Amino acid sequence: MDWSTPVWEAPGWKPLDRGSFRGAAAMVACMAVTVLAAHGTPLRIVVGALGVLAELGMLLGRRMLPSVLGAVGATVTIGAGLTVSLLVPAGLGSVPVLAGVAVLALRLPAGPVRTTGVAVVSAAFGITIMVITGSLAGLLAGVGVWLLADRSVEHTALQTERDRAVALLAEVEASREALQEAAAVEERSRIAREMHDVLAHSLAGLSVQLQAVRAIANRDGAPASLTGPIDRAADLARDGVQEARAAVGALRHAPLRGVDDLKGLVGGFPGEARLRDTGRPHPLGADAGHAVYRAVQESLTNAARYATGSVIDVDLAWTETELRVEVRDHGRPAGRGPSGVQGSGTGLRSMAERIEAVGGTLSAGPVPGGAGWRTEVRVPVAGAGGAGPAGKMGS
To answer: Is the pTM of the predicted complex or chain greater than 0.90?
Structure first.
C-alpha cells in the first residue's frame, strides 16, 4: 500500500452507531403511537407508510454524505411529519419535523440558503400547528423550530471545535514529548562531553603520572611500602578511566521508551482510549519496544486527526514468539466531520520502516467488514529473532 497517502475512511454511507439506533427507536415509537391514534384502517396504513418514509429520510439525512443527499433526506422527513400532523392532529407528527429540521440545518450551507430553508420549514410548521389548534398562538411553534435549528448548528460548531482541540492536543503532546526527549538527549550529550573532556582526560593523565612515579621509584630502589600504594593508585586510575568511558558511552545513548510506557501514553491521550493486555509478557528488545511505542503513539495521533470522537482500542497480545499490537478506532461518530488537522503524510511509512528495522511487520487499513481504521504491529520477542538485544520487558 501507499504509506504516504493513507485513506482513513471512504465517503458515502456511514455505518450506524448507538446514537442512531436510539434515534431510530424513538422515531418508530412515536410513529407507532400516531398510527394507533389514527381513525380507520386506511388512514393507519397511510400514516404507517409516512412514518416509514420519515424514518428512511432521517437515516438518509444523518448517514449519507455528501450534504446534498442529506438535505434531501431531512426534507423528506419534515414533509412526512407535516403531513402526518395534518392527518392525525392527536398524534406525534411533530417529532419527525423537529428531528428533520435539526439535521436539515446542518446539511444546508451556511448563509442565505440555510436561513431560507429554516425559515420555510419554521413557517410551514407554525402554520400547520395553527391549523390544527385553530389559534394564532400556534405560529409560535415555528419560532421553536427556528430556535431548535440554531441550537443544532451551535452544538455542531462547538463539537467541531472540540474535535479540533482534541486532535491538536494529541499533536501537541507528541511534539512536547519529542522536544523533551531531544532536550534530554542534548543535556546528556553535554554532560558526556564534559566527562570525556575533563574527568576522563584527568584520570588518564593521573594514570600516566603514577606510572612515571612508579618507574622512578623502581629505578631508585624504593621500598615496597612506597611502591605498593603507588601501584594501587595506578590501578584505581586505570579503572576510573574505563568507568568514565563507559559512563560517557551510556550517556550518549538516551534511554528508550517501550511497552511498559504504553499505559501512561494511552492514559494521557486527550480522547477516549482503552488499553488491553493479554497473554504472558516476554522480554522484548529495547529497540523493538521503542518501535512499538512509537507505532502506538503515531496511531493514536492519526485517530485523533481523522476519527475524532471515536473510542480507540489498543490491544496487546503476547505469544511465545511475538508481540502483536492492534490499534483500532471505530470511525467518526454520526454527524461528526473531520477535525481539519492534517498530518505530514509520512507517519505510516515511518512506522513501517521503524518496525521492519527490528524484524517486525506493520499493516494498516480500513477494518474489514466494519467501521474505522486498524493498525497492526507484530514484533518478535527476545530470543525469537530480530528483536534486538534483550533487556527489561518493553524497555
So the answer is: no
